[in-house]
Prior knowledge:
Shape: globular
Structural class: mainly beta
Oligomer: single chain
Strand content: over 45%
Helix content: under 10%
Radius of gyration: 15 Å
Distance between the termini: 25 Å
Number of helices: 0
Number of strands: 5
Largest sheet: 5 strands, antiparallel
Strand order of the largest sheet: 1-2-5-4-3
Amino acid sequence: MGFNLNNFPNPATNGITLKPMDIVEATYGGYMATRGIVPGAYAPCETVGWQITPGVRMTVQGKKFLGVVIATRYGYSSGQSTNRGAVFFDVTSDWWA
Length: 97
């Protein structure tokens, strides 16, 4: 979520691309099974981690979003590493209805 291979801002649009956030489950053999989407939550397709301010508000295609910074931390033999991403919540639509 916001820790991908694409650059931010997107070179083609000079912006950000959001997609509905998937719910996935790890299965046997290391595969992932998609179970559905998280209503009202969107994941960026670009690596936005350190360039997004927590609590940022933005408008994309007429919808207003609230950005929440997330992070995962994991260890390597050489020390600790932190990946920082973001999730954007739709604050204008009635996705909860």
